[in-house]
Amino acid sequence: DQQVKQNSPSLSVQEGRISILNCDYTNSMFDYFLWYKKYPAEGPTFLISISSIKDKNEDGRFTVFLNKSAKHLSLHIVPSQPGDSAVYFCAGSHDMRFGAGTRLTVKP
Amino acid sequence: GAVVSQHPSRVICKSGTSVKIECRSLDFQATTMFWYRQFPKQSLMLMATSNEGSKATYEQGVEKDKFLINHASLTLSTLTVTSAHPEDSSFYICSARGRGRLSSYEQYFGPGTRLTVT
Lengths: 108, 118
What we know:
The complex is a heterodimer. By secondary structure, chain A is an all-beta fold. Chain A is 0% helix and 53% strand. Chain A has no helices and ten strands. Chain A has strands at residues 4-5, 10-14, 19-25, 32-38, 45-51, 56-59, 62-67, 72-77, 86-92, 102-107. In chain A, the strands form two sheets. In chain A, strands 1-3-8-7-6 form a five-stranded antiparallel beta sheet, with no helix packed on it. A five-stranded mixed beta sheet of chain A has the order 2-10-9-4-5, with no helix packed on it. In chain A, a hairpin with a 2-residue loop joins strand 6 (56-59) and strand 7. The termini of chain A are far apart. In chain B, strands 2, 4, 5, 6, 9, 10 and 11 form a seven-stranded mixed beta sheet that branches. Chain B is globular and about 40 Å long. At the A-B interface, strand 4, strand 5 and strand 9 of A face strand 5, strand 9 and strand 10 of B.
């Protein structure tokens, strides 16, 4: 049973602008949420995580926000760069089933 | 960071044959390994979870007799696609979770294996 969902299959933004990727979840027991980035023909790489006791975690251009009441998290990338173009997956701790992913395209 | 390798990176086989894909954790002990299959249009589907020394746990809809998973050691897991058919052609990715200094939540992914069945 899919416990994380990404409802936007794709997102296109202009270089320098903000990218916002969204993820909804159903399991309130997750301790952590994680975001992974994937380029074509490669395995995903870990990007950033957030503990369920926090509402924000920032790492350079990447910030993840957690809204527990809405069971929603979002990944903000600012400023977006063409190299950020990839598929982004969210996941909940202990559940290795990813959301469907969102393909981000950053246009120069 | 932790490194996971997969071998081979690409394989082409004839329909009806079996193919083995290896997944190795190079610098850590992987207590749990996961196998994924990437379908067209990006989604990653978890196929099975394997813990060292025990039988793999397969996701619903994944044929365990077709996709044989062995996790014989803390650094190696194998996926064997038996009697492969063209519809098994896909990109297979493994990942591993470690212990000790590594985060218990983070997965470390292999680079993937492209399987083409002709």
